[in-house]
User: Fold this.
Amino acid sequence: MLIGVLAVLAGFRPDSAASAAEDLACLRRLVSGDSDALGRLYDRHARPIYSLVLRIVGDEGDAEDVVQEVFAQAWRQAGRHDASRGAVGAWLLVMARTRAIDRLRARRARPDLHAAEDERAIEAMPASTPDAASEIIDAEKARSVQLALSELPLLQRLAIELAYYEGLTQREIADRLEEPLGTVKTRVRLGLLRLRETLAEARA
Amino acid sequence: MNASHTDLKDHAGAYVLGGLDAAERVAFESHLAGCGECAAEVRAFLGVTDTLARGVPQRTPRPELRRRVLESFGGTPAVAPARFEMSALRWLPVAATLVVTLGAGIYAARLQGRVTDLEARLEQAILQASAADSAVADARRVSGELQSAMGVLAAPDLV
Assistant:
């Protein structure tokens, strides 16, 4: 924990400029067919990607399949990445979330008898032991987001979580929460505004 | 703002979370193109979605996954179809120039061959013509000599 705090104070963050430049260099090497670059990208981003995908699909086997698809997509589309539109890590996470939600929707279309067991398995899974400064920082970051989310009014938080992690449309959320559609839209917007403020304050 | 903005401004949050259905998304995106306020809100929310992505309990994947990811690319060509089309397009003018140059070269070589051939034939023709000329001259000389000889023979003996 102390190392993590010191690292944050020292400005060592996975998204720092040097790190972003290295990510871009990896992508360029990937374009020219260098598979070592894929290993580098994997080592730098697999953990947050896997964690997000697992949170969404809720099953380790499915999560591994999706992570593999994400890196396959990164490999195919490395040449199309637009550095001006965001960091490589954020780009990978957007792809990860989209693919994970696709997997979730496909599974909803053909209900799985083992879904409940999977959920229990996730609950029982031990949190991994962070063994590097970047992992501690990732974990700290995740905790601060969870804290910010927990400070939202419950219905705002639910609306955001159902939209982002479950991939539900506003209409589906309205049905799920038994609320008017307009109310759901407003809740999501207000929740995001508040979350943004809280996180900005935490960073300041 | 117009009525459309009032109707659509609440879509910004759902839009960045991917929670609009297809028709709503199309309507909001066309509104977004002309509305600075909604565009600014969408930009602000995009940072929040990245935060949400990182705001989950962190788990380390099994080491097998790394091997699986890397192994699945061992034999795969790194050049994606889209990139292939790009590079094919880029090489097209070069290839076309090469073909044209090669064709022109072969044509020029053939022309050169024909010119050499024609020159040789012309030279031969000139030689033949000059040979014929000298034969004609010889014939004329002989016929002149004969005529004068005949003249001498046929002349009345005046002496």
